[in-house]
């Protein structure tokens, strides 16, 4: 028995050593191939990880692009709707402003004391109308129907002016820290719209710190966006130097859900008296139409930073000074006025005849053309509305200029996709004015158009 077990254990040992020998020889013969295979598998694994990360990044970019696209389609649709409403409202506003100004003139002659209630009430109507006019302008800017009056401006000085206005509106509990580098950098922009950006971002920052007070930071900087910058690629921006306006606050900050909707028109978290929800939609519209973009970072309880990027004009030039206000001057020339909106025609006729001009006012463009063609030399100037049934202002102007190419023409329009100042000048218009027009606008346009003819 004992012998048997000894035999077995010897056999086991032998078996083990044979297996060990086999394994060792297998390992020896396959070792380099195995090593190679392991290395290959490790490489493949690393490649796969890179591929997965790239795919995730691509998906993120695609998601971002989709969000941007949806946002811009939404903005476009709302813009078209808002633009249409603004157009009609503009006409109504023209009537309100015009009649109030005329009423003021009539009352002034019978009620010369400066504390006359009627004059003061009318002043109130005009002030409210000026606010409404501004709102319409904001809506038109947002709907990108109006590009504004662009010229090369030193961005720093416009920001400084805007900040002065802002400072007067916000309480001392808000500290303002200004750091404007590269202030003399030049952008091609409408100064009023730049002020609007400052005011809208600044007011939001103030609202976010209203309860607590805090610091409102305004910085101006310059960056170069290269061709491979993701924003340049995604938003189809022109590569080159950009001014960066940074407006930051130490206020409430925003949750992600709010952050996603802040540029939507009429989106507001404020009560009815403090916000309309148009502020950032307008800023977005302005920045986009200037070829720039806007970025936001924010964290609840840790404030927010808005960064506005605007393309710089590479050729540096000095800012144009604003034109000096010309004085209203009338004349005795014979003017042909055309507008299908009776109230506006009536107002313009009274404004101009009040300044001494002889005015023939007609509400139908066809009839105006007939009158003009009977006596082309009997008129010194034609002023027409753009959007009219049967024949629009541009067509009427073409017909009139075909009869008498030297007659000055003023095109007066509220809103039009097919017309802008450049196109208007292209068809021979001497002056182009946007509704709602005030007495001063009309008087100056007529004066300039007639002056141009004399020159
Ligand atoms: N700096 C900020 N800090 C915190 N929340 C902000 C800030 N800026 C904007 N928001 C949020 O975005 C919303 C939309 O802002 P937006 O300026 O468009 O409209 P509003 O300020 O509500 O109204 P208004 O038309 O008067 O500007 C605000 O209601 C607010 O919730
Ligand atoms: Mg706002």
Describe this structure in words.
This protein is of the alpha/beta class and 455 residues long. Among the domains are: 151-311, 2-Layer Sandwich (Heat Shock Protein 90); 334-454, Rossmann fold (3-Layer(aba) Sandwich), CATH 3.40.50. Helix content is 54%, strand content 16%. It is built from twelve helices and twelve strands. It has helices spanning 2-110, 117-142, 155-169, 191-208, 230-234, 256-259, 279-289, 342-354, 365-374, 393-403, 421-426, 439-454; strands at 151-154, 174-180, 186-189, 214-225, 240-249, 293-298, 304-311, 334-338, 358-362, 381-385, 409-413, 431-434. The strands form three sheets. It has a five-stranded mixed β-sheet, with helices on one face. The chain has a five-stranded parallel β-sheet with strand order 9-8-10-11-12, sandwiched between helices. It has a two-stranded antiparallel ribbon with strand order 1-3. 30% of the residues are buried. The model is unreliable at 315-326 (pLDDT under 50). Residues 200, 203-204, 275, 279 line the site of magnesium ion. The site of magnesium ion has 5 residues, from α4.
Tell me, what's the shape? elongated
Beta-strand content estimate: 15-25%
Radius of gyration: 35 Å
Number of helices: 12
Strands of the biggest beta sheet: in what spatial order?
2-4-5-7-6
Task: Describe the secondary-structure layout.
Layout: H1 2-110, H2 117-142, E1 151-154, H3 155-169, E2 174-180, E3 186-189, H4 191-208, E4 214-225, H5 230-234, E5 240-249, H6 256-259, H7 279-289, E6 293-298, E7 304-311, E8 334-338, H8 342-354, E9 358-362, H9 365-374, E10 381-385, H10 393-403, E11 409-413, H11 421-426, E12 431-434, H12 439-454
Helix pairs in contact: 1-2, 1-8, 2-7, 3-4, 4-7, 9-10
The structure holds adenosine-5'-triphosphate and magnesium ion.
């Amino acid at each position: 028995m004992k012998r048997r077990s000894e035999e077995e254990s010897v056999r086991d040992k032998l078996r083990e050593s044979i297996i060990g020998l086999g394994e060792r020889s297998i390992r020896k013969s396959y070792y380099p191939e195995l090593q190679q295979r392991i290395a290959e598998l490790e490489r493949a694994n690393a490649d796969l990880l890179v591929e997965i990360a790239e795919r995730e990044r691509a998906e993120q970019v695609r998601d971002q692009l989709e969000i941007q696209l949806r946002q811009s389609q939404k903005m476009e649709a709302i813009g078209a709707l808002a633009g249409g409403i603004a157009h009609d409202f503009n006409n109504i506003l023209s009537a309100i402003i015009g009649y109030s100004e005329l009423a003021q003139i009539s009352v002034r002659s019978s009620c010369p004391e400066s504390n006359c209630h009627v004059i003061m009430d009318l002043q109130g109507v005009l002030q409210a109308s000026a606010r409404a006019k501004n709102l319409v302008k904001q809506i038109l800017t947002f709907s990108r129907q109006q590009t504004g009056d662009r010229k090369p401006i030193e961005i720093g000085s416009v920001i400084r002016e805007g900040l002065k206005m802002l400072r007067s509106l916000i309480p001392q509990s808000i500290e303002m820290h200004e750091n404007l580098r590269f202030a003399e950098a030049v952008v091609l922009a409408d100064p009023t719209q730049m002020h609007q950006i400052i005011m809208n971002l600044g007011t939001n920052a103030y609202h976010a710190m209203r309860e607590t007070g805090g610091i409102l930071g305004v910085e101006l900087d310059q960056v170069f966006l290269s061709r491979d910058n993701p924003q340049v690629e995604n938003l189809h921006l022109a590569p080159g130097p950009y001014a960066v306006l940074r407006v930051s606050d130490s206020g409430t900050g925003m949750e992600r859900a709010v952050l996603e909707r802040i540029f939507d028109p009429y989106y507001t978290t404020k009560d009815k008296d403090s916000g309309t929800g148009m502020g950032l939609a307008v800023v977005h519209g302005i920045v986009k139409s200037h070829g720039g973009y806007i970025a936001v970072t924010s964290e609840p309880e840790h404030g927010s930073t808005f960064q506005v990027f605007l393309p710089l004009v590479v050729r540096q030039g000095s800012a144009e000074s604003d034109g000096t206000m010309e004085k209203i001057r009338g004349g005795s020339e014979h003017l042909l006025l055309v507008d299908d909106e009776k109230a506006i025609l009536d107002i313009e006729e009274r404004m101009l005849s009040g300044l001494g001009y002889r005015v023939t006012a007609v509400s139908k463009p066809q009839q105006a053309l007939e009158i003009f063609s009977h006596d082309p030399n009997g008129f010194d100037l034609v002023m027409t509305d753009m959007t009219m049934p049967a024949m629009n202002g541009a067509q009427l102007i073409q017909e009139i200029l075909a009869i008498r190419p030297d007659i000055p023409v003023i095109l007066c329009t509220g809103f039009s996709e097919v017309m802008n100042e450049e196109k208007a000048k292209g068809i021979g218009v001497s002056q182009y004015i946007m509704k709602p027009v005030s007495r001063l606008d009309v008087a100056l346009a007529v004066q300039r158009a007639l002056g141009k003819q004399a020159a």
